[in-house]
Write a structure and sequence with these properties.
This protein is an all-alpha fold and about 280 residues long. The protein is built from 14 helices and two strands, in the order ααααααββαααααααα. The chain has a two-stranded antiparallel sheet. Strand 1 and strand 2 form a beta hairpin. It comes from Rhodoblastus sphagnicola.
Length: about 280
């Protein structure tokens, strides 16, 4: 297969599809082929491609069986910097981890996307994994591998990416949700029932279960992207599920006032504390 096979498409779009198909193939592509693609990027094949026209081809690759590998090839040939400079800038940026103490954010995103493909995650989850860390590219060097205030930097960048590519509204919404909440989910503990109840509420566990389940996919794939975690159970999933199950039957009244909402939150906190205490004693 070669780039010319897609001559019926806009040259830049044909190139994107070619990279996506390379990622789906067995084994590594021929280095000469990658160099040819890089030459075409240097020649400006993508520069006159309307960003909104890029999305259908790019999202096709995101939904493929190896989206992380596609992203890797796009970065290698210089295309990622033209399509998503905010994501390209994450390559070489350290992210705090356990063993080893830090990992490359670019490689982490690639691994997270491939984990998403393994569980057939929807497009919104894959987009969220792709862009949720874009606020970390210019974190103060003295604090690395921690990323202080990346949420404030990341939110406008995510909005800009979604607008530029004309990404669907659910992709934009989940990316912003993951930016705000994913790291909080990773830090949740059995010892703090109140924050667990609020995290569940904010993320739709009680009133938008499908949105919550997709959010949990993002958290799980983010966790599995780290070295040694591939394919592992997400350790916070069982805790959050137990907390959610403990609140079954505690319903929000129609048109609740603030006092009714506070009473509901308190009841949920008590129920979760009781459930998580039982989990600790098992």
């Amino acid at each position: 297969m070669n780039v010319q096979s897609f001559a019926q498409l806009h040259p830049g779009l044909g190139l994107l599809r070619h990279v996506a198909l390379l990622a789906e193939g067995d084994g590594a592509p021929d280095q000469d082929e990658l160099e040819l693609l890089a030459e075409r990027i240097d020649a400006g094949f993508l520069l006159d491609t309307p960003p909104e026209s890029i999305w259908p081809e790019f999202s096709r690759g995101l939904m493929g069986p190896a989206p992380g590998r596609m992203l890797h090839y796009l970065h290698e040939i210089g295309a990622l910097e033209q399509i998503l400079p905010e994501v390209a800038a994450l390559h070489g940026v350290p992210q705090i981890a356990a063993k080893p103490a830090s990992v490359d954010l670019g490689a982490l995103i690639e691994a997270a996307l491939d984990e998403a493909a393994k569980i057939a995650a929807p497009l919104s989850a894959r987009f969220a994994l792709l862009v949720k860390d874009v606020g970390k590219s210019d974190s103060p060097r003295e604090h690395l591998p921690a990323h202080y205030r990346h949420v404030e930097r990341g939110a406008p960048r995510i909005l800009a990416i979604a607008a530029r590519l004309d990404a669907p509204a659910d992709c934009r919404a989940l990316a912003l949700q993951a930016l705000l909440e994913c790291e909080r989910a990773h830090r949740v503990t059995k010892m703090r029932a109140g924050p667990v109840a609020l995290l569940l509420e904010r993320n739709g566990a009680f009133d938008a279960p499908e949105r919550f389940e997709t959010f949990m996919m993002v958290c799980a794939c983010d966790y599995r992207a780290y070295p040694g975690h591939s394919g592992a159970d997400y350790p916070k999933a069982a805790l959050l599920d137990a907390a959610r199950q403990a609140c079954v039957g505690l319903e929000c009244p129609d048109d609740p006032d603030e006092s009714a909402l506070e009473a509901l939150r308190e009841a949920r906190g008590v129920a979760i504390a009781r459930a998580l205490r039982s989990c600790r004693e098992m």
